[in-house]
Amino acid sequence: MPVIKEILFDCDNTLVLSESLAFQACAELCNEILEKYGRPERYTSHELLADFVGQNFRGMMVSLQKKYNFTMPEDEFNTYVDRELGAVIQKLEKAAEPCPGVMEQLDHLYKEKKYGLAVVSSSALSRVQASIRKVNQDKYFPPDHVFSAATSLEKPTTKPDPAIYLHACKAIGVQPGECVAIEDSKSGAGAAKNAKIPLIGYVGPYIDEGKEKQESMAKLLKEEMGAIYIMYDWKEFPQALKAVEAS
User: Fold this and answer.
1) Could you cite one Gene Ontology molecular function of this protein (predicted)?
2) Tens digit of each residue's pLDDT (9 = 90 or more) over 185-215
3) Which of 95, 120, 152 is the last residue of a domain?
């Protein structure tokens, strides 16, 4: 296996505890859309997170239309994308916090200077920047090493499409096999897998949904997505990285 040169971090619920905040804003807009199109279903932020974790809002709305069998005009679709981004950023700038233990690991990696560090997210670039800036992580990632599937690509997409990972590797100047990705969701892990990037699965935040949910996600990331190591806590990261480099 090639030597690992770059560590590629997902952002939401991997670096920053942002998903629950973002899904509060998303649920409000999704319920507005469902009401507008005459659908009786309504989402709480928790239910929306369970159904669409790992997708950006653009991908979420595509899935919502398929699930409830309606079609939005493109201009209306884009208006909702713009509204969601502003609402989410407002919540993140007020209340986002880093994932427990991640700051210590980032600080060590940054000082060690053995690996390049990058963020590779499905979320819009302004949202990612707001998240890492709020929790003081922006100092660890050069601006040209923060990538968004919704913003950085010529054609916006979302994970599990590997396009954003392949774009990031090309922009940084590394091969996929010279990287390791850290992901917490099926869609994110799928993007890394489809890009042929070695994967570390992170399931720390799932404990808030219960041990059973955490274990089921750990199993999915390991068995279906091929994660080399499953982290329950960021303090395990040095061991996880050694496992990747030894594989």
Assistant:
1) phosphoglycolate phosphatase activity
2) 999 999 999 999 999 999 999 998 899 999 9
3) 95
